[in-house]
Amino acid sequence: MSTQRIPETDLHAWLDGQLPVEDQAEVAAYLAGHPEEQARLDAYRQHKQQIQTLFDPVIHEPVPEHLRRRPAPDVVAAPVSRDARPRWFLQLAAGLAIAVVSGSLGWFLHGQALTQPALLSDAGDASGFVHQAVLAHAVFTPEVKHPVEVSADQEAQLVKWLSKRIGSPIHAPRLSAHGFDLMGGRLLPGETGPVAQFMYQDSSGQRLTLYVTKGQSANRDTGFRFLKEGKVSVFYWIDGPFGYALSGNLDRADLSRICNTVYEQLSQT
Amino acid sequence: MHDTHERLLACIPRLRRYARALVGRREDADDLVQDTMERAWDRLASWQAGTDMRAWLFGIMHNLHVDRLRRQPPACDALDEDTLMNAAVNNPSAGLEMRDMETALMLLPVDQREVLLLVALENMRYEQVAEALHIPVGTVMSRLSRARARLHALLEGQPGAPALKVVK
Question: Minimal Cα–Cα distance from A184 to chain B, Å?
């Protein structure tokens, strides 16, 4: 074999049908004069066929439905793994436990942490912040005493403060045309820096949250995407460096109308 | 867009076939396919139409598989050439050669196994294998050559095929 004139590479290419036509005659002539090499390549070919015989039947097996299912954003994915839970949530839960804000909130958070249902599978991509947005919605909208950190009667300060912390001017859209008034907002830690959450409420006590995160530049702009988990509907989108998620216990059509208003107002600034 | 989705779904049977050959157990293989599909859906925007979707997909699967091996120290089954010989002795049936092949494949180092399977099962061109595995074509060729030589030695019971631990 040490006197082999044909490169080993060419023998494999010949076997795999990837040798240029002009080189084929030379290989054939070489093998005709070297029966031991011919035997080796015959064995290789036989192995290749055996591998195909062994595994080709898998191609014809029916594909399990769960493999065909699209995980996000349109369909709820597999349960969120523990390590996918956003860090701020744990920090928040720990902080609140120390602060003993209220017995009911503590209980609520405890329940959330244990039973938080399946939302989106992957943090760290476009849908990652949505997961956090939905959690933040679920955590703060039921809160009676402190749903917001800064209330709407200090809107100017709220917006200035959030803008400063986020590092870009942001403002709270007006949703009174839809019956929702700004309650206020809060700042939350997020994967890509501070995040703003605005909360709105209508006359029936129904609450919406708008989650605004910066640092989405790695992701492409998206159109509106919709996600529903339990009773919470979410529209989310990415616009330049900002990721937005509008969450509410509304049906898709109602939330969609509000979402358009939000988008229009934000794009005017 | 819809077309792209259909193309992606149409690749699942091929992914399953390759995964089965790569990791062995059906459940493990389908887990790998599921993870691959989830990541593929997530990153579908980053796949550029007109490029080879198959190489892109198998590349995702390769990355996930490598990650898994890194995370979980490889399970070292007590599988070596003796296992292969025992399998031959204990199963004098028609499927014997196939059993031996399955065992021998698992005895290959995973980087050699990947290359051999992409060529044998997917009939990929060497350039496509290189793209999927993010390695130069020269490396594809050397791994392919070593994989075949090793497989040959294992199946023919030739000396010079060192005992390997199965890296699953």
Answer: 33
Angle A103-115/A128-140 helices, nearest 10 degrees? 150
| Strand (E) or helix (H) holding A237 | strand A232-239
Cβ of A70 within 8 Å of Cβ of B41? The answer is yes
Task: Please tell me the distance from the alpha carbon of residue A211 to that of residue A232, in angstroms, as a whole number.
Answer: 14
The residues with which B4 forms a beta bridge, in sequence order, are: none
What is the ipTM, given to two decimal places? 0.83
DSSP state at residue B46: G
Residues of chain A with C-beta less than 8 angstroms from the C-beta of B120: 47-48, 51-52
**Residues of B in Cβ contact (< 8 Å) with A63:** 12-13, 16
Residue B88, classed as helix, strand or coil, is helix
Whole-angstrom distance, CA of residue A99 vs CA of residue A3: 81
Strand, helix or coil for residue B63: helix
Nearest-Å Rg of the Cα atoms of chain B is 17
Is domain B81-156 classified as CATH 1.10.10.10?
Answer: yes
Q: Crossing angle, helix B96-107 and helix B137-156, to 10 degrees?
A: 130
The CATH number, out of the four listed (3.30.200.100, 3.40.718.10, 3.10.580.10, 3.30.565.10), of the domain defined by the range A68-267: 3.30.200.100
Give CA–CA dist B120/B136, Å, rounded. Answer: 19
Question: Closest residue of B to A49, CA-based?
Answer: B120
Taking only the tens of pLDDT, chain B with its 168 residues reads 667 888 889 999 999 999 999 998 888 899 999 999 999 988 887 787 777 889 999 999 999 999 888 876 555 444 445 545 444 444 444 466 777 888 889 889 999 999 999 999 999 999 999 999 999 999 999 999 999 999 999 887 654 444 444 444
May I ask the CATH architecture of the domain B2-71?
Orthogonal Bundle (1.10)
CATH 1.10.10.10 occupies which residues in chain B?
A: 81-156
